[in-house]
Each structure stands twice: as structure tokens, then as C-alpha cells.
């Protein structure tokens, strides 16, 4: 009981206080390890001739051994000193990275916390919507974009594409808004970085996902920028309309009224037009529909479904499938299969995005 204090001291409090004081006085294991390495290094350096020496008085047996080590070749001593110095540096680096030294934290958590890329929107409102749009865009690209296309993307989008199975060798990471996507054929834009890059490098919208601040756009990269793209688009549109008109005059192919209107408007991919002309040179068939799988963008129709009303229609469609699959790029479709729809066999042909321009410049699709 303390003097002037009527309250008794709780039993065991003195023992606990002493134990707490001992724990507070004990250094951390990291500081002990660093001190141990430091002392070992100093002893090693002193042993090879560095550090203070005693020169007066009689030498002890230990000092004789010290002098014997000092008489070893200088090159050998320098190698040993370099080894000890490297050990000290490695130990200090490890302790700093793991956060053992007071006032330091692990570098890895800091890097992860600061990993907000230009293409990301971490912590901002609508993050879940942006993540969903990014995942949808990645899935669409993996399924619809040509397997030979080089994709320019921001880090978060590149990671989403790799998660969908897109090879890392096809990705061109864009680290900031000033990065150039030259050499890529497709660019995936970020809602946070969408400025001059669109007009300068990728003026053609292929698909879009999400809306507002969570909108992800997939664009075709065109050399020469928006002006060159518009000029090439006008020339290609004229070629597609001319080719469509020629197909409408081909008696071997029948079209529905909507499909005929799409041909006249030049809304069908050049590769489909050339493929239909090649098949019509050998078979008679009917086009049941043109279609595309590009959400959020008005693009050319890249898919067609055809049927045959001939007596040996199934065999003709099988032969047509073999012809289609034997083509070389860019006329080799991404998907081609004969399926049964409504009890009737149908051949479905689909080309990958993006739709190329200028393929019909020197091609005639006559009767």
C-alpha cells in the first residue's frame, strides 16, 4: 500500500508492470538482426585489415592470428570485404521492404495502394459499373476481334483482356494519355483518358459498353487519323454499294427485302460480299439474314446466314462450307458452320472485327 493512498495495490500489478517494462525495453527482432549483422561485418572487416588496430604492447595469440590474416593477398581481402558489404546491404534492404525498421512500411502494399492507372477509376463512384463494362468489353474482344489484331489498352483493360485468354503478346499497354498506339489495329479507350487519341489514331467506333463515366469504347486504329479514315470510308462505301448492286442482279442469289436494302446502302462487310459472289459462281442459295454482334455502335454487317432450296441443298451447303474454310486471310472467316434451323440446314459465316477498307477497289463481282 502506498503512503497516503488508502486503496490497496491490486495483487500482481507490480509483477505485470515490471514485465511490461521489460517488453518495452526489448528491441524488435529486426533491430537485433540488423545489429548482429553489423557487428559481424565489422569484425570481418577488422579481421582483414580494416578498422582500428592495437600497435603498442605485447600481442596476444588472437592478435597474432589477426596479423596472419592481414598478411594474406590484398585481392583476397578485397573479395571478402565485398562479400561482407553485400551481405549487409541485402539484409538492410530486406528489412526495409518488410517494414521491420520503425517508420517504414512494406513497399509492396504501398505500390498496390497507389496502383491507380490512367485507365482505372479505383475508389470513384460507379467503380462496379466500370468494372462490369470493362469485363464485357474484354469478353467481346476475345470473341469478336481478329486473333491477329494488336490491341492498345490501358493497364486495367489489358489485365481484363488477359483474364479472357488474350495473349500478352497481342497487347500494347498505354501507360498515360500521351502514349502512342501506333502499330495497333484496335484501341480500347478509357473513360478517364479519351481525348485527342480518338481522332488522331482510332476514329472508327467498333463497339461500346457501359455509359457515362463507365463507358468503354473499342475503336479501330487507322493510320493517318480521322481525315484519312473518312476519305477511305467514302471510297469503300462507294465500292460496297456497287458490289451490292451487282449481287442483287445475280440470279443465283435470292435476298429478302431488308437484306436487299442493306446491300444498296453499302452496309455489308466487303469480305461477305466477296464470299457471296464466290459461292454464287457455283451454287444457288438464299440469304436469310445479315447481322452483326457489335453493341453500342453502328457498324457493317459481318455475318450472313444462307440456305439452299435445291434438291441436294444440304450437300451444296456442305461443299460451300469447305470452300469458305479453305480461304486465305482476309477472306478466311472467324466462324463458319452448317446448322439446322427450323428443320432446314443453314450455313452461317461470320468475319472478325474490324472490317477492313479498300478490299473491293480492284474486285469485280459480276454475274
Structural topology:
Blueprint: H1 13-25, H2 29-47, H3 61-70, H4 74-98, H5 107-113, H6 127-144, E1 151-153, H7 155-163, E2 171-173, E3 186-189, H8 196-201, E4 204-209, E5 216-220, H9 225-248, E6 253-255, H10 257-264, H11 270-280, E7 285-291, E8 303-307, H12 313-325, E9 335-341, E10 344-350
Parallel strand pairs: 1-2, 1-3, 6-7
Antiparallel strand pairs: 3-5, 4-5, 7-8, 8-10, 9-10
Helix pairs in contact: 2-4, 6-7, 9-10, 9-11
End-to-end C-alpha gap: 116 Å
Order of strands across the biggest sheet? 2-1-3-5-4
| Largest sheet properties | 5 strands, mixed
Number of helices: 12
The overall average pLDDT, rounded, is 75
SSE topology string? HHHHHHEHEEHEEHEHHEEHEE
Counted up, domains total: 3
3D architecture notes:
The chain is of the alpha/beta class. It has 3 domains: 13-113, no CATH class; 127-223; 227-350, no CATH class. It has 12 helices and 10 strands. It has helices spanning 13-25, 29-47, 61-70, 74-98, 107-113, 127-144, 155-163, 196-201, 225-248, 257-264, 270-280, 313-325; strands at residues 151-153, 171-173, 186-189, 204-209, 216-220, 253-255, 285-291, 303-307, 335-341, 344-350. The strands form 2 sheets. It has a 5-stranded mixed beta sheet with strand order 2-1-3-5-4.
